[in-house]
Amino acid sequence: MGKAMPHGGGGAAPPRAPEGDGLETVAELAQLRARIAAWRRAGLRIGFVATMGALHEGHLSLVRKAHALADRVVVSIFLNPLQFAPSEDFASYPRDEAGDCAKLRAVGAHLVYLPSAEQMYPEGFATRVAVGGLSEGLCGRTRPQFFSGVATVVLKLFNQVRPDVSVFGEKDFQQLKVIERMVRDLDLDIEIVGAPIVRERDGLAMSSRNAYLSASERAIAPELYRTIRELAQEIAHGAAIDEAIGAGRKRLSALGFVVDYLEVRDSESLRPLTQLGSGEARVFVAATLGRTRLIDNVAIVRESQ
Ligand code: PAF
Questions:
Q1: Which candidate in 83, 158, 207, 233 could, as Cys together with 149 as Cys, close a disulfide (CB 3.0–4.6 Å)?
Q2: In the chain, where are the structural domains located?
Q3: What's this model's pTM, rounded to 2 decimal places?
Q4: Which ligand 1 atom is the nearest neighbour of the CA of 50?
Q5: How many angstroms separate the CA atoms of 14 and 88, rounded?
Q6: Which residues line ligand 1 (CB under 6 A)?
Q7: What's the whole-number average pLDDT of the chain?
Q8: What percent of the chain has pLDDT over 90?
């Protein structure tokens, strides 16, 4: 697929970034729609990455993937209040709009969409999107509002951006499955693509929330991945799932993690598994270290696979 020059197409002119700068910044929905319409008239394929900002290499890998799959890449930055419970970290969530835009510019994103909370959820907003089944276990058990908040904002962003393809990270594997289900169930004409987890050199999955970790917690945090990777290997070599999980829980608790869940589930249906079946299985974990909630997952790869 040919890549056109930035700012391709005609139509109504949204605010343009300075000459030589490929990144447009748009806050108003009408301006976003005008730019997207112009790109569509020019026959360009639109890629989309939804974020809550505080961007790291994991987010940038999604943008690069979208770049490879589309002619124009739109990234939204919107800290979505609907997916936070009152007791959670909405108020303290890291924010760095200028730094985020610089990173997006460096990886060649074309447009950053920064809607206000008033624009996304005006007075009287009353709709919630609920994806049954897949939303209910794992993170859905202790964060019951979370996936409906995610599905509502993602559907709204999809309707605003109208992308051809949208990329989501596999770190939030359950979120990826919930969004795939929503897109299938509601006949949205959008290709959903998953992208592999990006890790620090010591294995810790990149996350905006890693910034909350103290130095001593940061030293322990990679043990989360080490533990689930070892569990996945043991189970792949025939260890009983319940015994391996029990030992993994003990190990994490001894290290100071408060384990929310540590489970083996089918990678497609997310059904809990007590033994491996024919489909791909994954180890999923969520645990709190100090005040930081960390999640991670890893595929169980059997010798024969
Ligand atoms: O994964 C995230 O950052 C958020 O859940 C998302 C998809 C941007 C929705 O707010």
A1: 83
A2: 24-195, 208-300
A3: 0.92
A4: 8
A5: 36
A6: 50-52, 80, 83, 150, 153-154, 172, 175
A7: 93
A8: 91
The Cα 231–Cα 229 span in angstroms is 5
More confident residue, 10 or 41: 41
> Ligand 1 centroid vs 85 CA: distance in angstroms?
15
Q: Is the dihedral of CA 255, 261, 263, 269 positive or negative?
A: negative
Closest atom of ligand 1 to CA, residue 172: 1
- β strands within 239-289, DSSP E: 258-266, 281-289
Catalytic residue numbers read: 59
CA pair distance 138, 130, nearest whole angstrom: 16
pLDDT of residue 21: 59
Residues 16, 7: contact at Cβ < 8 Å? yes
What are the pLDDT digits (tens) for 260-280? Answer: 999 999 999 999 999 999 999
CATH H superfamily, domain 24-195: HUPs (3.40.50.620)
Report the alpha-carbon distance of residue 14 to residue 51 in Å, rounded: 22
Give the tens place of pLDDT for each residue, 192-212. 999 999 999 999 999 999 999
Tell me the C-alpha to C-alpha distance, in Å, between residue 104 and each of 42, 53, 160, 299: 23, 11, 20, 30
Paired strand residues for 272: 265
Q: Which tens digits make up the pLDDT trace of 107-116?
A: 999 999 999 9
Largest CA distance in the chain: 62
Least confident range of 18-27, 104-113, 183-192, 246-255 = 18-27
Q: What is the CATH number of domain 208-300?
A: 3.30.1300.10
225 Cα distance to chain centroid: 18
Distance linking the first and last C-alpha atoms of the chain: 33
Question: What DSSP string runs through 132-145?
Answer: TTTTTSTHHHH-TT
- pLDDT, position 22: 85
Distance 235 CA to ligand 1 centre (A): 31
